[in-house]
Automatic annotation (TrEMBL):
Gene3D superfamilies: Naphthalene 1,2-dioxygenase Alpha Subunit, Chain A, domain 1 (3.90.380.10), Rieske [2Fe-2S] iron-sulphur domain (2.102.10.10). It comes from the Bacteria. It comes from Puniceispirillum marinum (strain IMCC1322). InterPro entries: Rieske_2Fe-2S_sf, Ring_hydroxy_dOase_asu_C_dom, Rng_hydr_dOase-A. This is Methanesulfonate monooxygenase, hydroxylase alpha (Large) subunit.
Amino acid sequence: MPPRNHKKWLATPKIEYISSECYNNYEIYEQEIEHIFAKVWVPMCHKSEMANKGDFRSSQIAFQNVVAVNHGDNIKVYLCPQIDRLTGNGISVDGLTELHSGVQHGGMVWVTLDPNPTQSIDEWTCGAFDCIAEAIDTEEMEVFHYHKSIIDTNYKLWHDTNSEFYHDFMHYHNRVTGFNDAYFARKNIPFDNGHVNVSSFTVQYEEYEGFEDRGELSFPNLPPNQWYMVDLFPGFNFNLRGSAYRSDSVTPLGPNKVLIEFRGYGLKKDTPEERATRIEHHNSIWGPFGRNLHEDLIGVAGQGTTMREGTEARRILHGRHEGGTIHDEVGMRHYYAEWGKHLGVSPENPLGHAVEDDMVVAAE
């Protein structure tokens, strides 16, 4: 490629792209809170985190405190202006506003702030969980691992990490042991509402130094050592890797800050020995000191630094087409088309700059 001067670097690409302003503008962030997070179905926690009658689990969605309460025969979610504990037992719900909620897809507690949702939970997820439904719904699951990270980056950059697979090349051990033809042939499959799932392949764990085959503890109805992933718009991920299941939930704290909650799951019927093995398998990949997770977090923090408000706008290319396989950027294109629809903007030009002579210039 010949050298480019500054003018050429700012030229509008001829392939699919979005503007970095999607990530760093405060007004856009406020619109996301109002038009996306306050409207969609959010998986706020798992029912096993409130196993007993009277147990509760609190969270925050779109600046609103919410609390899920186990009433014994069901779980309900409420707006709760005053809450000073993440979890506990015995909270009073008198006078609290009940929200639309439900327990689905492996025991997740789903809630929406929208007082008049136009879609049910199933209509919202619209088939994205079908690929793992028998694995996560056949037996009761429970959370055995929880931790959270507050990262100086935009929440969409974390979701991008699960939507594009170029970042895999920063995982050294994966690169030298796990990449094979079957890995690259995995499909990115888009669903309505901006969701994507990634089809399976057989992970050869025995090729990882210090690892062993994990087929014996595969989830129900899941062939040994398979790997599926579900990415839900606008920022929720469900990752099933044979013996271990993980979910991520994002809570934007600003255009350049995000809270990410990580949960690891086992089967409620696990023996102590099975649970110990399952925890080891989970943490070796996704624990705070595992192979993958910290590298992903470092990567998105670096991306966020380069896209802070005040940096020069750039174009992030989404133009790779590879028949819907994992390095095809169909997942990115699909996500940002949905994102633009919710906000009523073009991801290519979210601030409505004037376009002149194949260059984007600030509108007066």
